[in-house]
Description:
Layout: H1 2-35, H2 43-71, H3 83-107
Amino acid sequence: MLRIRIGVVAVVVSIGMASIGAQPALAQTSDAMVSTPASSSTPKETLKAQRKAQRKAARAKRNAELKELEKNGFNPTSDQDNYPQNIQNSERKTAKSKAAEGASASGK
Length: 108
């Protein structure tokens, strides 16, 4: 048991010593990163921004659909004994209300 503790302490000390030696190197790389202009965006950054925008749009669409279902009677936190039927009824009501909105908009 004592050998295990000594081994663990030795590993922790060696990691600590390595991190102390690595700090100046990290400081140098962060200075170099600061000096690069922010206006130049790499393809990787552009793709990341596009993916983020897509996720944000998908999340907004999903939340809007959920709000519409909740408006038509679906409660995701309620008793889930009749789960498929509850959401199906709400989806039918949503479809009917959208069809009625479409018919009234085209009739004007």
